[in-house]
Amino acid sequence: MDYIIGMDIGTTSTKAVLYDLKGTVITNTSESYELHRDAMDMAEQEPEDILTAVTTTLKRMISQIDWKKDRLRTVSFSSANQSLIALDENYQPLTRIITWGDTRAAPAAKKIKNSDQGQELYERTGTPIHPMSLLCKISWLKEDVPEVYNKAAYYCGIKEYVLYRLFGIWQMDVSVASCTGMYNIFELQWDEKALELTGVSKEQLPKVVDAYEQFSGMKKEYATITGCPQDVTFVQGAFDGALSNLGVNAIDEGVAAVTIGTSGAIRMVSDHPVIDPKGRIFCYALTKNLWVIGGPVNNGGVVFSWAKDNLFDAEKSTADLLGKDSYDLLTEVASQVPAGSDGLLFHPFLGGERAPIWDANARGSFFGLAQMHTRAHMVRAVLEGIVYNLYTVLLALEEVLGQPDSILATGGFARSELWRQMLSDVFERPVTIPQAFESSCLGAAVVGMKSIGVIEELAEVKNFVGETTTYAPNPEHFNVYRELVPIYIRLTRQLQTEYQTIADFQRRYAENGEDAD
C-alpha cells in the first residue's frame, strides 16, 4: 500500500496523520511542548523541543509502515505562522521561538501603524500591522533588544528552522512568507520598504518557494533517528490556517471556514489577493495562485480553558470523580442557561486581540453582571463571547467578499453540540461540520498528493473529507442574539479607549512585583 503523511507543526503540539491515497486515516499521533510565558506579554517556545516533537512524531508514523510491501510516497508540512527565530552566522538560534501570541512588539507595531507608511505596508503585504508579524517583531528587536538584533545574521520561522536542521535547506513557502508583513503579495517577492524599515536584507531571509516544492535527502543522523529512508520525497506545504480551509474543502468561492481551537479564525479563499480598506482582515497565500482572506482571533478554546481552571474548581473535581471530561461537564452546565445568558456579556480578550480590532492591549470583561447570574451563566457567557467575537470578524469579511453561501466549522469546539448550535444561532445561518480529522494535516497531505501527481487538482479534497452534519439556526435563539450582539460591538468600541490604560497599569504592576521578589 502507498501512504502519505500530513504533519502539522502547531502552536501547542506537532501532529502527524498517516493516510492512504484515498485520504483514509490509518493512524495518527501528536507530541506536545511547553509555551514559555516568563514575562508579561511573552509567548515563546524552545526550537529544540519542537524539532524533537517533529522527529518523534515522524518516527511513530514511519514505524507503522511495512517497508517490504508498502511505500511512503511523501511527507507534507503544515505549520503555525508568524513565529520568529533570530539566528547567528552559523544558523544557531539567538532566541527561542517568538510565537504569534507574543505581544512584546506592541510599541513597535503602534509606531509603524501610526506612521505614514503603515496603511501602505498593509496594502502591499496583506498583513495587518500587529505585534504578531515578523515586521513588527524584528522592528522590536532592533529598537529594544539590540544585543540580539546586532548579532542576527538570519531570520526565519519554526518550519524553516526545522527543515534547515533536517535537510540543510534554507527556504520558506509563499504561504508563511505572506504572513510576515514583509512580503509583497502582488509582486510575490520580499517588500523593499518593509526590509528598509526593519534593516533586514533579502539575504538574511529564506528563499521563497511554492507550496508544492519538493526536496529529499534527510541528514543521516535524523534519518537514523526517525527510520525514514533518505530518498523519501518531502513537500513544503503551507501555514496551518490556509491548509485547514483546504482540509475541510472550503476552497471554492463563497465558502467560509470557521476554526476554533486554542485560537480561532474565519477564512474564505480567492483566486487573487484582496485587501480590506479598513485593515481589519488579512490576505495570505495558500499557493501562488490561491489566497486566503480572513481574520484570526487570539481567544478561542484557550478562554474556555481559563474559565475551567479559574472559575470551576468544584466542577473539575466532580468531573474527575465521575470519570467525565471537565469540558463536557461545563458545557452541560452552560446548556442549562438560556441563550444570551440572561443578558450577561463577556469580552474574551484575555490575550489581547487580533481581528477585527487588532489591539494587543485588549482585555477581557464581564458586562451586565447582576445578582440573578450564577457561575453557569458565566460559563455560557464565556462561550457566547468567543462566538460573538468571531461573528464580528465575519461581518468584516462580508464587507469585502460578500456573504458566504455556506459555512463550514472545524476545530476542537466542533466536538461540542452546544457550540455547534450556538455558532449557527449567532451567525443566523446553517453551519456544516465536516467529518475531516485534523484538517491542517489533511490539507498538507492533499498539497503533497498534488505535488507528486497523485491528484490533479486541490478540489479533489472533496473525496477525502467524509460525511458532514449541518446545524440550522434556532429562531428563538437568534432573536435573542440579534439584540445582544450590537451591544457587544458597541461596548468593544467604547472599551478600546481604556485598553491601553489598564494594560499599562498591569505591566507596571507585574514589573514592580518582579522587583519586589
TrEMBL record:
Metal-binding in keyword set: no
Protein origin, superkingdom: Bacteria
- Coiled-coil segments: none
Q: Which InterPro entries match?
A: ATPase_NBD, Carb_kinase_FGGY, Carb_kinase_FGGY_CS, FGGY_C, FGGY_Carb_Kinase, FGGY_N, Gluconate_kinase
The Carbohydrate kinase FGGY C-terminal domain covers: 256-450
Q: Which family does it belong to?
A: Belongs to the FGGY kinase family.
Protein name according to UniProt = Gluconate kinase
Give me the gene this protein comes from.
Answer: gntK
* Gene Ontology molecular function: any one: gluconokinase activity
Q: One biological-process term from Gene Ontology?
A: D-gluconate metabolic process
